[in-house]
Amino acid sequence: MKSETIKKRDVQLHIKKDGFFSFHIEGSEASQLLITVDKHISASLYITYHGIDIACNCHVVIESGSSCKILFWNEVSSSMRFQQTAEVGRDASLTIGYGDLSEAEVVSDVQAALLEEGAQVQLLTACISGQKKHYALHCLHEAAHTSSQMENYCVVKKHGDYIMKANGQIKKGAYQSTSVQKSRVLTMSEQQRSEVIPLLLIDENDVKAGHATTVGQPDERQLYYMQTRGLTREQAISLLVIGYMMPIAEIIDHEELRDQLRTDIEKKVGYHA
Fold first, then answer.
1. 233-245 vs 255-269: helix crossing angle, rounded to 10
2. Looking at the predicted structure, is the pLDDT value of residue 30 above 70?
3. What integer pLDDT is reported at residue 159 of this predicted model?
4. Minimal CA–CA distance to 114: which of 83, 137, 93?
5. Which of 23, 36, 100, 233 sits at a 20 to 30 Å CA gap from 54?
6. Which helix (H) or strand (E) is 87 found in, with range?
């Protein structure tokens, strides 16, 4: 899998053709990233971040009739400040995943606007928190017949500090729209902080909206069942953790990348079959 390395502060990625594209962004200062996908394009992007004390402002534009999947993978070593805005046009689809296995502190603010009828947005986050990981997601429905979905998965270790604010907003006139969200948080210690704040701001009657949240420690019945099948308790816990993280690997339709991410997740968790 070839990846283009980018070291410039201001980066413009203009996607004019179908396909899979991989980019590796390095830096230690503020950067600007603009991603534009032309009309009627089907594309997948894999973007990794490396560096120290990264601050990135990203803007994504998906023009009408296009389908785009983007996976951002955080490999920053100290701290990451990530702000993103997205605009999705008529009958266009945008899926964005945010994967984070790093030890870096992260503060992320994502706002996606569904501007025209038929626009679809899916936001998915998956992280392991042994320190500060604060996320805010906001999907704004500005037109009728639009849909948004937010899925969040986190494993919170000892001394972890995880906050997820997920906001689905349907404005007046955005009838027959759908906004749903799901958050699952697995806590591995009493010495941690976990908070999920689901919000639904609805100004239209003819819509579908909902949220579901689970926060808790590993299920002892599940662990017992896996141990009866020959696993140690440590291996059983590792499998649960991998299960929480694995949805992020399924975003991009690229077999080699999915295999690589699965291996990275298993190494991070420390699972050995």
1. 140
2. no
3. 93
4. 93
5. 36
6. strand 79-88
- Residue whose structure tokens are 């986190």: 154
Distances (CA, A) of 60 to 12, 67, 102, 233, 244: 10, 13, 24, 43, 27
Give me the residue spans of the domains in the chain.
4-217
In the structure encoding, which two tokens stand for residue 26, read together? 């390095």
* 158-178 per-residue burial string, b: 16 or more CB within 10 A, e: under 16: eebbbbbebbbbbeeebeebb
Average pLDDT over residues 124-141: 96
Q: According to the model, what pLDDT value does residue 273 have? A: 45
Instruction: Supply 244's token pair.
Output: 């929480």
Integer angstrom CA distances of residue 81 from 31, 33, 60, 183, 225: 10, 13, 17, 22, 41
Mean pLDDT over 141-170 rounds to 96
Contact 196, 166 (CB under 8 A): yes
